[in-house]
Fold this protein.
Amino acid sequence: MELSDIAIKSIYAVIVVSVLMGFCSYAVLAERKISSWIQGRVGPNRTSLPFISSIPYIGRFLTRLGVFQPIADGAKFLFKEDITPAHVNKLYFTLAPILSLIPALTTVVVVPFGYYENAAGEVVTLVLTDLNVAILFLFAVSSLGVYGIVLAGWSSNSKYPFLGGIRASAQMISYELAMGISVLPVFMWLNAPGTAGTLSLVDVVNSQGGALWYAMWMPGSFLIFVVCIFAETNRLPFDMAESETELVSGFHTEYSSFKFGLFFVGEYAHMLVGSAIVAILFLGGWHPLPFMTWADFGVHGLLAGVLSVGTLIGKLCGFMFFFMWIRWTLPRFRYDQVMKLGWQMLLPASIANLVLYTFIIYFLERP
Amino acid sequence: MTDLFFYIFAAITLACAFAVVFSRNPVNAAMFLILTFLGMASLFVMLEAYFLAVIQVLVYAGAVVVLFLFIIMLLDVKEESKAKLKPLTLVASVIGFAILLVGVVGITSSDNIKATTETLPEAAGATLKNFGYELFTTYQLPMQVTGFLLLVAMIGVIVLSKRVKTD
């Protein structure tokens, strides 16, 4: 690989991560606005910037929408006093927030987000790396994210964070298995006899172009995967590690200012990548409708690039809304209920689903 | 460039493996174990065996060490004091190390290895399809036996750890 190639790849990577961080900060705003909307409140509507907010009508409208709130939030995280309690294990206390953010940002490497047609009419996929084992890479790296939570809980040296950390590790092990098994039918269908074996996410999206989306004919897999994504991202109703009403705020009780900010951003980055994966695996990726691709609508060239990225981001935002909607709809499970759901319901259900689709695929593909 | 990366990752792997053995604090040891597995995964990447690399991270770094940490934290294992070396342990470890050394030297100096380093054959673990076919054809019996051994181990642990009430 040439040095210039490495430079270009690095620039792409920085751009993608910056866009992801931008999405994170506005996902926080969306969370606050949607929460307030569901609870009949107004939400953040006061933060204003000089000059821009004084533009008649538009500035006022943007302020009421809370568009400038993420800037204020970010500045607050940066400039608040960073308190390190005396009883913590300093090394791991500092390391934990970083360890929870890095895996979340690394997973975005294998996420494809669109395609365009170049001058020669060839389809070029927009992705940082089209890894052959993309889905496994994703599971592997995101499973490393739990160390951030576990270490934060342990290094804080106090009871509530410790309980949070223990819960997080137990929960992660329980749900990862069901999650992995639930996506197997998709890849079994993708790897028909005679094809080169692939676990690439790009191939998953391409196989849904002009065909039925996987969510429609594998609803069982879709349901199990979505439940597991909630557990994996530690979102309500599975936020056992945090559960503020019983564990104060769980693993990050002792954290303040920027270190807390890293946990916070990491959680949202994890959610965003999770939503993108759901859209890619089950909701047709950047294809606008089942059985239809953008090419069927007569869209080619660079316009296809814009529309395909827009479609994927639209689906991603839709699923993020679903995340927040569920948060204010379902109450938190009790810890034993979470374990019971994981081991006694989701795991057998995912195995049954796998066996069922093994037979279905066998009869459909039978020579 | 590739050679340089190999030496860096190999050094990291070895250094972390030593640190796992020598660190007194069990949490430190577990963290170094993760780094060892990551280093090994990067060595697999250098060999273009991406599947093995990812599985290494997913199974060992992602699941097994989480369980280790879980147990360490739940039992609240304290730092170990320096254990006195028993003569028997010393003799056993010296013999073990000698056998390992003979094995490593024997493997690396045999003609078989020298021939294959010149023309790299496609490794069984390199691509997904190869891996699957090899696992379910050539290595079917070892896989089944390993699986059975793991099952026995699991049942054994359950039987041993379950307290039977005698009264």
Observations:
- Chain B touches chain A through 21 residues (CB under 8 Å).
